[in-house]
Model the fold of this input.
Amino acid sequence: MTLKRFFFAAIVSMIVLFLEFKAIPFVLKKTNLFHPKLISPVVEAEKTKFYLKYVLLESQVLLWQGPFVLEGIGGIEVSIIEKGRPIKIIFSSERDPRSQLASLQLILKESKMLEAIKNGPPPKLIDLTGDKPYVSF
Done:
């Protein structure tokens, strides 16, 4: 009698496992009740931060702190080391980091910027979130 119950329990467990791991996911996928392409905002922000960090490291920019998401302005804040001094930069989370990095490199290479770094205090903030980036000393 116990051997009969064991085989019955084994058959029932196999049916349950088959339904749970094969049949139900197949039905959900075919009926579009399960949408795996939906991404939560947290996952999207982490992807953006990772991509920005990858672009900065790829272009050999020395990253000091960050990236941190600034939800109020839709930006990502990082601190980099330029000429031995930290500079806080805010990138837009909606635009491509590569184009923003090109703008940043252009800003850092400007002669006025280099003179300001040599003669006075370093810039406190470079904001790339808007259409026209600005530098704050």
Remarks:
- Residues 65 and 114 are 22 Å apart (CA to CA).
